[in-house]
TrEMBL record:
Gene name of this polypeptide: LOC114582528
Pfam families recorded: Sulfotransfer_1
Name of the protein this chain belongs to: Sulfotransferase
Signal peptide: none
Claim: Membrane is one of the keywords in the record: no
Species classification: Eukaryota, Metazoa, Chordata, Craniata, Vertebrata
Amino acid sequence: METSRSQHHQLWREERQISSVISERMESKEGIFRRQLVDVHGVALFWSIAEAWSQVENFQAKKDDLLIATYPKSGTTWVSEILDMIYNDADVEKCKRDAIFNRVPFMELIIPDIINGVEQLAEIPSPRLVKTHLPVQLVPESFWENGCKMIYVARNAKDVAVSYYHFYKMAKMHPEPGTWDEFLGKFVAGEVAFGSWYDHVKGWWEQKTTHPNILYLFYEDMKEDPKREVQKVIRFLGKEVSEEVVNKILHHTSFKEMQKNPTSNYTMMPGDQMDHSVSPFMRKGIAGDWKNQFTVAQNERFDEDYAEKMKGSTLLFRTEI
Ligand code: A3P
């Protein structure tokens, strides 16, 4: 009798301990996800990047680092997979060694107890592929001091806005996107993670005019003629690659292949961070999907505002191919 009562107490204690651990975890996750963005030098970033900003600012680039820079949803994962293939002589098995977010760490992504891009990069061997979504003025100084090569990929604003809206819904680090119309309003105002698309694409475009180490690519060109664009990348890196290897790269990095490859489609990311049942990361992979999302009125308003924001720039985008 005595023993069984003390066993019961023990069990209750353990249950209470377990449930308090679970609720603490839930609380801490709630404290991590869906929080408001924080201003860092005029750019809206995740709260946790803002808190760890000095780590990002002081990132130590190496001379042979290659920086892959994009505004979110512009083809980052696609060009990352292409580069990892080039770096590994199109050895598909080598490229499947780990998830894309570990092969090409996202430098400024710091989320307590979840991920730290700066620390991840310190662990990987050179030559490193480094991903960033930072606007050009926030790129850590050491990249410029070391004369690192950089590849920027830009995608037309309308498709980016649509892709970003679906991504906001499935990737929990972002604040709630609200309705499509509300999200579009925030996108146009630059009140989304990594700030204004307009400033981002123009900032990198201008930087390119004085920095020959920057290759500026367009998602739409990659869709139109991936072979031509992959060859451009190879030339920029100063590499010699056979036709056979180029064809292997093209096959492995096609949307169809990347969509079903767990090491490139982000399904290896824990489900509480990205919920693919809401919207898959590899969603459509086309140019011109905005036509299925924008109303006529939204499109007219967007075009008018676009003309104003992009006035005077030589940067031209195609919204369909
Ligand atoms: P959609 O949401 O329009 O489908 P990022 O990697 O910068 O986050 O960009 C993600 C976008 O690139 C998604 O766009 C995704 O489907 C698309 N994408 C990824 N791999 C691709 C590929 N191999 N070819 C074409 N588009 C690709």
